[in-house]
Design a protein that fits this description.
By secondary structure, the chain is an all-alpha fold. It has one domain. It has 2 helices and no strands. It is elongated. The protein starts with a helix and ends in a 33-residue tail after the last helix. The mean pLDDT is 83.
Length: 74
Amino acid sequence: MLYQDILLRETAGLPEYLKRELLDFLFFLKKKDAAKSYTSAGANLPTPKPAFGCGAVKIKIALDFDAPLEDFKE
């Protein structure tokens, strides 16, 4: 009950545009808390292990990988 009284008293003197901004911030906090509780509920799920060869498409090795470098010819 104390929080409600403080909020009402502090917001009473604010201009209308600040009241709207405060309301937007309140909705943001509620959405953030809902997302946080959603992710923490899924935190108990096991993380899947990567399968063998799943990174093969991410790495490309040049055909002349073992060829001597021109920088070291001297």
